[in-house]
Amino acid sequence: MPKQNRVTPFGDLIAVPERGEMFGNRGILHDSGQRIVRYSQGRRWLVCRLEFHNRHRMIMRPGSYTELFFLDEATALAAGHRPCAECRRQEYNEFRRCWLAAHGELTGHPPSADWMDAELHRDRLLRPRVRNTYQDDIGALADGVFIVYGNEAWLLWRSALLRWTPGGYAERRLRPTRGSVMILTPRATARTVAAGYTPLVHPSAESLAASKPSIGER
Questions:
Q1: The Cα angle at residue 43 between residues 40 and 46, in degrees rounded to 5
Q2: Distances in Å between the alpha carbon of 108 and those of 98, 116, 213?
Q3: Integer angstrom CA distances of residue 105 from 102, 108, 109, 110, 202
Q4: pLDDT of residue 140 exceeding 90
Q5: Domain locations along the chain
Q6: Phi, psi for residue 153 in degrees, rounded to 5
Q7: Exposed, middle or buried: residue 37 (CB in 10 Å: 0-12, 13-18, 19+)?
Q8: Which of 84, 111, 129, 182 could disulfide-link 46, Cβ–Cβ 3.0 to 4.6 Å?
Q9: According to the model, what pLDDT value does residue 218 have?
């Protein structure tokens, strides 16, 4: 039976068979019966590699952080996570570099993990368990950002909008060039992506975005 440790772009934890391409955590979320009892613990929400130095973990071990799984990095960033500084050091440094390019007027130097975590925590939640979304023009958004369309999460990728599902991207629409949209990816992360950080996406995103538009696609 699947555990409730798969993360959606909304940041919700669901129980589905699909594991996804990325791993991460946001603290100890489960009890001794492996039931999810809290949404998060602390500000350090990470997205990690599935494999690192041949380490092996027992899923939801008592007293240890809850192992979370994401379809891809774009999903994790939308949920409010950031690259891990240990297992994804190169991506972490690139994220910091692009964060500095986007927010340099605030720090003047590459941000620390604590600085980014504090900013992301303010961005991702209005209050415990309640996501903070915001509006912007779709023409100002970079590839890799998630928006809400029809109460579902859609990824901006290439010239398309791609509908998220736990097992991959399942529907394509042409990406509008302008118009206000509701954005899931935290504002600080969306700015970092716009400054050059390119998140990893599930293979289905590349194949779907590269496919020919279907008749009547809009």
A1: 80
A2: 13, 14, 44
A3: 8, 6, 9, 11, 33
A4: yes
A5: 6-210
A6: -90, 130
A7: exposed
A8: 84
A9: 55
